[in-house]
Amino acid sequence: MTPAERKSRIEKLLTSLNIPYIDHLPLIEESETRVRIPQEIAKRILVLMYLYYVSIKSHDRNNVIVFLKEQILWDDVSSHEKELFAKDLTVQEQINISWRKEAIWLLLWAINKVDILELPVEQVSISEIFERIPGFMEDTKEYVESATGRTIPEIVDLADLTYRLHWAIRHTELNGPLALNVNSSIVQERHNAINWLTYYEDDWDEIRTDR
User: What is the pLDDT of residue 72?
Assistant: First the structure.
């Protein structure tokens, strides 16, 4: 599929959902897209999940940090995440971490742990995520090493759709009054995840969603 064909197909989907779009948003080229290896994606999922756990069970913080180091996962924790692991979190920080489950769900899809990624309407339940990762404090080596990735065309399809959905949300927030049948916070988290997945920035902390 050419970038123009992909754009046309996604615009038809947006039209069917009564979601606005503009014609001149840039195309995403498959030939220019790099995707992180499945093992790196699996490690990012685990880091995000253990940060989520610590945000709820702060008394286990030190045990989790020791576990991540034993599992050779601590180097995959970003600088900002290391700060979060080490401190008493504010309510807003806990909320922000909780929303990361939507990024996790996309990343699980990217390593074939989720069959179909539905439109970003309903929040994923944390129990659905738990079903797709190793048990608490269980060895993660096999999970990481056995991870398999989606194809680049699948990743680019999702990147293009997410980019156009996020534009529509921002456009509607600025111009109103149309109400979109998608969850803006889910789209934001998915956009962060897909941009990390495709190397928009190298560092998780530096990911932007301007494309």
Answer: 97
Q: Which three-class secondary structure state does DSSP give residue 149? A: coil
Structure tokens at 44: 């990012």
Residue with tokens 């959902």: 17
End-to-end CA distance of the chain: 20
Confidence band of 177 (pLDDT split at 50, 70, 90): low
In angstroms, rounded to a whole number, what is the distance separating the alpha carbons of residues 105 and 126? 9
The single residue listed with the structure tokens 């039209």 is: 15
Domain ranges for the chain: 3-21+34-206
- Summarised one tens digit per residue, pLDDT across range 96-148 is 999 999 999 999 999 999 999 999 999 999 999 999 999 999 999 999 999 99
Nearest to 33 by CA among 202, 201, 164, 200: 200
What is the token pair recorded at 96?
Answer: 């922000």
Largest CA distance in the chain: 52
Answer yes or no: is pLDDT of 176 > 90. no
Rounded to whole angstroms, the Cα distance separating 35 from 208 reads: 16
Q: How far apart are CA 121 and CA 146, in angstroms?
A: 30
